[in-house]
Amino acid sequence: MIFKKLLHFWNKTEEVFLIFGMSTMFIAMIAQVVCRYCFNSPLIWSEVYARYMYMWVVFLGISYGFRHDKHIYVGILYDRFPEKIKQTVHILICALMIYIMAVQIPCGVEYCQQLMRVKVNGLPIARGIVYWCLPIGYTTAIIRLLMDVVSTVLQMFGIRIGENTEMEDGI
Q1: Tell me, what DSSP letter sits at residue 165?
Q2: What secondary structure letter does DSSP report for 119?
Q3: How far are the Cα atoms of 14, 90, 100, 119, 147 from residue 107, in angstroms, in the given order?
Q4: 4 HSE (CA, 13 A, CB side)
């Protein structure tokens, strides 16, 4: 029960942040265009803000994409496999993605720590804060992938997950 509530909170927080990020990027770029072409006085911060918010939306959107199964794949061969082989290939692909992201997380953390002394041009924050999107985004994506792997393994062994169970709500 508590897992389901935490998962629901995480899902909603993720959605709110992605909507907020996309909306504020759009508003910042519209403000930039209006100020530049109507008032001949461009905003200093809007392009920088939009670029860095885009990074956050992309890296946190990875997890959202896994949750809704919206990432692209080449299915020309995969779609022809029997169901058991599809599930096995899916688990192997998830494991490979988890490995790649897990390897990049420590490097991302180290990079963020190095950039904490560098300020962002046009914004009053450290550049390291901006780049935390990489380890945070990859961590959330790994959690989603692990949930997906557990769900797939359970399905392989005939344990069906109902529509409203805790596992199914997260992936």
Answers
A1: S
A2: B
A3: 24, 27, 12, 20, 24
A4: 7
State pLDDT tens for residues 11-45.
999 999 999 999 999 999 999 999 999 999 989 88
- ∠ CA 135-47-21, nearest 5°, is 50
Asked if 147 contacts 170 with a C-beta cutoff of 8 angstroms, the reply is: yes
| SS3 state at 77 | helix
The beta strands (E) that lie in the chain are given as: none
- Specify burial of residue 47 (Cβ count, 10 A radius: 0-12, 13-18, 19+): middle
Tokens of 23: 């909306």
**Which residues are paired to 19 by β-bridges?**
none
122 CA to centre of own chain: 26
Rounded to whole angstroms, the maximal C-alpha distance in the chain is: 65
